[in-house]
Design brief:
Length: 135
């Protein structure tokens, strides 16, 4: 007879069954090979991920350290005299900016700029008087 039902009965010649079995075995072997390859690749990616996490932590620490240095200014490698000189220079620059701002305010005021509120006007007067009193 020809092809029959499914319960243990063959559907084709023994040669066809052998070919189908060989195809299934080859497909199964290929699936196993691909699975092993994926597992190997995933293991490599996990290792790379761990390495990158460590590098990221190191860079964060370095970044915090650099940021702290920028906020705190020069470290102990400067002598107290050098640090005092740097602070004096910074104070001089800030005082010069303050003087220029006050000159600008005077010019605006003289040109009839927008009226300031009472509190601002009093504060401006105070600043201008302080500036006039300084040598």
């Amino acid at each position: 007879g020809g092809p029959q039902g499914w319960r243990g009965e063959s559907r084709g010649s023994p040669q066809q069954l052998a070919e189908r079995y060989a195809d299934l075995a080859a497909s199964h072997s290929e699936a196993l090979r691909q699975r092993e390859e994926r597992e190997w690749h995933n293991a490599r990616l996990r290792q790379e991920n761990a390495r990158l996490r460590l590098e990221n932590r190191r860079l964060r620490r370095e970044n915090r350290c650099l940021f702290r240095q920028a906020l705190l200014g020069p470290g102990p490698d400067k002598s107290p005299a050098e640090e005092a000189e740097a602070l004096r220079a910074q104070l001089g620059r800030l005082q010069e900016k303050h003087r220029r701002a006050l000159r600008h305010l005077r010019r605006c005021r003289a040109a009839g700029g927008p009226e300031a509120s009472g509190a601002e006007e009093g504060e401006l007067e105070e600043l201008l008087l302080e500036e006039d009193e300084q040598p």
